[in-house]
Design brief:
TIM Barrel, Immunoglobulin-like, 13 helices, Beta-galactosidase, Chain A, domain 5, alpha+beta, 8-stranded parallel β-barrel
Length: 698
């Protein structure tokens, strides 16, 4: 709900549990008033009447301006920096305010720099997530404008004695690990300068007052960015103690915009929410909003897939893939995905990228016969691609070396023996889109795993007047390609992959059906990765595979099929082991686990997540998913010490007056007992795991 004050210069956005308020002062400065529990317009008027603090050598605008800019009485880090000939800084004049459905627009202009700015706010019905972004436009008839910085938003937190910052850090094979640190004076910045979201951080932060929030209790504020290129989120404590979070697409070369006369650009959405129900409540709010308004076809169950990568690596053939498909179908998988090695001269990672036609030696009949066989087995058919990349040893590169990102006179930098195509070029983007369109037309393909296996290193664009545009326009071109391919092929699902979790954010999630969480499929490591991932994103998009034991790719760890399956069943279940080496007993056990997952799948993929015990150390960890009358608990024990039975796990969110019947034993459990005394898991030894299913009755 959006309300406007009687004077037409204050605005209030209210969701189910929170409100957001701002106002214009007499000099057209837009000031932040409130982000917290629900309030009314009378409260907004009272807040507007409070004087701003005055300190010698400090600006009353710093820490109070809704979207800080450069110039005038300002010393804090700006969200917007503009350069035009003979002018520095920005002085706003308010132009207009308007609403359209669930969106508020506030328009400003600076007559000196010929820049106009529109601040956008959107609050969707039934949610507390405020979506913010800005549109900058050059209204000059003949002068380009440089915009070194155009953040999507600055979020101002209420004044508290102290704040604690939570964020997710990592690297390849170790993504999304949760970190909590106190917010000190100055800035704490996370981000990516790599041209993609990166394995090192997810574009998400959460802050809790005084560092006292728990999973169930406490006030938590959180922000997440919808952008799949370079980015930055800076959490800053100002000299007066005010804490702000500013962020958007990256800065320096990665964020420089040059607006031609008459041109406008809109930034990515930087969304924010406030929860009074701790970190668990914040996660639940993020998940519900994404399932309702971000993730495509979120009401549909994601299928159990089989992916051939770890079974075959680059040694791919039609006969071998069909043999795997028969075994995958027999254990109950619903989607069979042929990974890398099916195209061009792709017998290793040294050749073939860019040549998206089946290898004639490996698939002499093309992909259609294999896809038909897979469908005849009762599964859907998927394929791996990496369309933004090219190997120097490829027909595409030999024909068009100028299509890559490159700096004239310098040898191109190769990672994984490949280069990045410059999708910011319209001809390159059109070629990529047409080749994938032709691929989807050539065979009955239901699923595309879209990979991105290296970062930007040579972001040159010879011949372009403003080559810095490459950083943003590559991502925007990718979005356009995905949007058009989805529209042209509505039955095809897409997965985002980037060497695992190198491109996971709200922007790519609005165009893909799931993401590859990490190349690390070790089931014990995955518990920590999934714990961090679930802070912001729902299980409905979190792909997780059961692979072979020992885990050859990461650490050689030996684990039971039970532990591997229960770990992967916390998300979108997949299988990636070499099924030709599995015994009949293992295949039979896998079939039973897959059957169980299909029964609990709606609850896991769309239910409310409760993190009961975090995966810290070698002890017990557990999660709970609840949907309607159904409750599913997944529990894992890393190691048992001294024969001590793990402590009971206390469940959450149950109806305190109800009885919950265990679906496996038929035993009734009273809710107060499960809530206060807990559930005995019976886990023992090393790497043990279990699934518990309950249904509310009475």
């Amino acid at each position: 709900m959006i309300e406007t004050g009687e004077d037409g210069r204050s605005w209030l956005l209210s969701g189910p549990t929170s409100s957001y308020a701002l106002r214009l002062d007499d000099e057209d400065h837009l000031l932040h008033l409130h982000w917290g529990p629900r309030i009314g317009l009378a409260d907004v008027a009272a807040l507007a009447g409070l004087p701003l603090p005055e300190w010698s050598f400090e600006s009353p605008l710093d820490g109070h301006e809704e979207y800080p800019v450069e110039g005038g009485r300002r010393f804090a880090e700006p969200a917007l920096i503009v350069r035009s000939p003979g002018a520095r800084g920005t002085a706003w004049t308010f132009v207009s305010a308007g609403t359209a459905g669930d969106e508020l627009r506030l328009a400003f202009r600076d007559p000196v720099t010929s820049l106009s700015l529109t601040l956008h706010y959107r609050l969707r019905d039934g949610h507390d997530v405020v979506e913010r972004w800005v549109t900058v436009a050059n209204t000059s008839a003949d002068t380009p404008l440089e915009v070194p910085r155009a953040d999507s938003a600055t979020w101002t937190l209420p004044v508290r004695a102290a704040w604690r910052l939570s964020h997710l850090h990592g690297r390849w094979g170790a993504e999304s690990r949760l970190v909590r640190v106190p917010v000190g004076y100055g800035a704490h910045t996370i981000g990516s300068r790599r041209g993609h979201t990166g394995h090192q951080h997810l574009p998400w932060v959460a802050l809790d007052a005084d560092g006292t929030a728990t999973e169930e209790h406490g006030e938590v504020y959180s922000c997440a960015l919808a952008w799949s290129g370079s980015w930055r989120l800076a959490t800053r404590r100002l000299p007066d103690g005010t804490v702000q979070v500013t962020g958007g697409w990256g800065h320096d070369d990665a964020g420089l915009l040059v607006l031609a006369p008459g041109e406008s650009r809109s930034t990515p959405v930087l969304a924010g929410l406030r929860s009074a129900e701790g970190f668990g409540g914040a996660s639940a709010a993020w998940h519900a909003w994404q399932l309702a308004h971000v993730i495509p076809s979120a009401a549909e169950d994601r299928p159990v897939l089989y992916n051939s990568w770890e079974a075959t690596w680059f040694e791919v053939s039609e006969e071998q893939q069909l043999a795997l498909a028969r075994r995958a179908a027999a254990i109950g998988t619903e989607l069979f995905v042929v990974d890398d090695g099916w195209f061009g001269r792709r017998t290793s990672d040294r050749a073939g990228l860019g040549d998206w036609s089946p290898n004639p030696d490996r698939f002499p009949r093309g992909l259609a016969p294999l896809a038909g066989e897979v469908r005849a087995l009762g599964m859907r058919f998927g394929i791996w691609v990496e369309p933004e990349m090219v190997n120097p040893d490829s027909d595409l590169y030999r024909a068009h070396p100028e299509w890559t990102q490159h700096v004239p006179g310098r040898a191109p930098t190769q990672f994984r023996n490949q280069l990045v195509l410059n999708l910011a070029r319209a001809d390159v983007a059109a070629f990529v889109e047409e080749r994938i369109h032709q691929l989807l037309e050539s065979a009955p393909i239901d699923y595309v795993k879209w990979d991105f296996n290296r970062s930007f290193t040579d972001p040159g664009w010879p011949g372009e007047a403003f080559p810095e545009r490459l950083w943003t326009e590559h991502v925007e071109a990718l979005y356009g390609i995905l949007d058009r391919l989805r529209a042209a092929h509505p039955g095809v699902a897409f997965e985002s992959c980037s060497g695992g979790g190198g491109r996971i954010d709200l922007g790519i999630l609005s165009r893909t059906d799931q993401v590859w969480t990490s190349d690390n499929t070790d089931p014990a490591d995955r518990l920590a990765i999934q714990h961090g991932f679930g802070q912001v994103h729902p299980a409905r998009v979190m792909a997780a595979w059961v692979t072979d034991s020992p885990n050859e790719q990461m650490n050689g760890r030996v684990s039971s099929l039970r532990f591997r399956f229960v770990s992967a069943m916390a998300g979108v279940l997949g299988v990636g082991g070499d099924l030709t080496r599995w015994s009949e007993a293992e295949l039979d056990e896998a079939s039973k686990w897959i059957g169980l997952y299909k029964e609990i799948r709606p609850v896991v993929q769309r239910g409310r997540l409760h993190r009961l015990l975090p995966p810290d150390g070698d002890g017990l960890s557990a999660v709970q998913y609840s949907l309607g009358d159904e409750v599913v608990v997944l529990a894992w024990l890393r190691a048992q010490s001294f024969g001590q039975e793990p402590a009971p796990v206390r469940l959450r969110g149950l109806d305190p007056g109800a009885v919950y019947v265990c679906q496996d034993t038929g035993r009734p459990h009273r809710a107060p007992v499960l809530l206060h005394h807990g559930l005995r898991t019976g886990l023992r030894g090393d790497l043990d795991a279990a699934v518990f299913r309950f249904r509310r009755e009475g």
